[in-house]
Amino acid sequence: MILSDRTIKAEIARGRLIIDPLDPSCIQPASVDVRLDKGLLVCRTKRHESYIDLRQGLDDLNQLVELEEDEPFLLEAGGFVLVSTLELIGLPDDIVARLEGKSSLARIGLLVHSTAGYVDPGWRGRLTLHVSNLAKFPVTLYYGMKIGQISFLRLTSPAENLYGSSKLGSKYQGQTGPTASRYHCNFEGNQQ
User: Fold this and answer.
1) What is the helix, strand, coil percentage profile of the chain, to 5?
2) Do 39 and 62 form a contact (C-beta atoms < 8 A)?
3) Would you write out the chain's pLDDT as a tens digit for each of its 192 residues?
4) Which of 75, 78, 93, 186 has the greatest number of CB atoms lying within 10 Å of its CB?
């Protein structure tokens, strides 16, 4: 069952659902708009040969760029960047979340996809998003702009193993900014 605005507000008031900072104007009928934080991970050119080896750490594939308060970041046509939500999200043991892009942005060719559109119970941190520009022209990104929307669903019962538990080997719990792929941790000997 998808949570309504009324239930979202009640869960926040009870401290079970965390959205921080919360702009009350971002609460929609069945979702909450999330905004773009200052940090962006931009893919470096000419860093690697002609391929990416998934067994290797990829932190040096990207460069962190900080947005200024009112200065735009110009996302080139065909380009992509990893960004994070301004809001820290925290989920209890019986709620999952879905993160989607804003349709107004998609209508100009700017696709926003959560690197993991499904957010597990127990998650706590800022969410990393993948933003792609399919338009034929560069598109501006601004700190604090509404970049996506998150909806919440209640589970049939609380989860046994929460995201971040030692049993799951969760790789992104507690992230505070856009986070590069940690896929290499899936290979034997690369566990963190």
Assistant:
1) 10, 40, 50
2) no
3) 999 999 999 999 999 999 999 999 999 999 999 999 999 988 766 555 566 666 666 666 677 889 988 899 999 998 989 999 999 999 999 999 999 999 899 899 998 875 567 899 999 999 999 999 999 999 999 999 999 999 999 999 999 988 767 666 655 666 766 666 555 555 665 555
4) 75
CA distance 119 to 97: 5
Both structure tokens of 173:
């719990």
Contacts of 189 (CB under 8 A, 6+ apart): none
The pTM of the full predicted model, rounded to 2 decimals, is 0.82
Residue at 117: amino acid letter: G
Q: Which two tokens stand for residue 170?
A: 């969760």
- Rounded to whole angstroms, the Cα distance separating 123 from 117 reads 13
Q: Strands 73-75 and 80-90: what pairing?
A: unpaired
Cβ atoms within 10 Å of 98's Cβ, excluding its own: 15
